[in-house]
Fold this protein.
Amino acid sequence: MIKQISDIELNYIDYGNQKGDVLVFLHGWGQNIEMMKPVADPFMKDYRIIILDLPGFGKSSEPKTVWKLNDYIDMIHILLEELSIKKPILLGHSFGGKLSLLYGSKYEVKKIVTFASPYKKEVQKLSMKTKVLKGLKKVPGINKLEGFAKKHIGSTDYKNASPMMREIMVEHVNTDITEEIKKIKAPTLLIWGTLDEAVPLEEAYEIEKLLDDAGVVVFEGCTHYAYLENLARTVNVLRNFL
């Protein structure tokens, strides 16, 4: 469904158990709702599920100015307020995980889960899409997932992005949220693959040290898309954490 928030047409889906706790899923850069559905769907009987197409991706409209990370946070907060959602559980992959951490530093959340999320200024030698697809080729038996990723990792990585989204990506890549992360009080789970070339595993342990209540779960032999590559384990880990 589409909701108008300021000058943004925001596409999102809202399904599952409307009486349950709310899980809000935020996808990575250049992706869309479909990349989060596989991990969200197993929880629809017990939880209310919200998945967004972040502005500039999927079916949501593109920002008309160069958005900072806090502009994304403000938009997410407005949506949740309009849906009367308080203390959500945030689950984000990569860029969406960075937004989840930043949101949790500003607003009250019940829990946070991040899948391979950057938090400091990054040196981007390869586009995120190139890194992800390169990494997937290293994992045995992952051909189907590689095809899925090629289909659903949108054309909005830096090389193919519009001029506006390129500028927003530069803003994101150059934004360090170290000090903000220190303010998070909610229990936080960090899920990472050992073969992640986009955001190295060492960053998971760096984030863990910044938080009062956090833990790292490592998926051996998995890449930047560890949460999809071993989906059954991801679901089991999440059920225990949630």
